[in-house]
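Next comes this protein:
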Amino acid sequence: QVQLVESGGGLVQPGESLTLSCRISRNIGNIYDMGWYRQAPGKQRDMVARHIVGGRTEYAESVKGRFTISRDSDKSTVTLQMNSLKPDDTAFYYCNARQIFNGENYWGQGTQVTVSS
């Protein structure tokens, strides 16, 4: 069973920064695309940023230039650096891992990010 362990999140003021990290439980990160999604109350869960196994990254338009996703050398940990946070970034953030061969999806338990003055 694959588990995702998240850390980070919290309450910050507009313009401040936060870092989210997610580690996959088994040393098999090199066969999983990993990324972050978020869900605000009453809204659907949307992709924020993804790190594909081959190194390509994808970002939602709303976070381009402010958020950066990175992955460590053994591909087991993905980090989302969030800068210039806005109140619209407030949501529950979920780590996702998708197996590249069979498409199986795994989700972390989620962490709350609140941006408020």
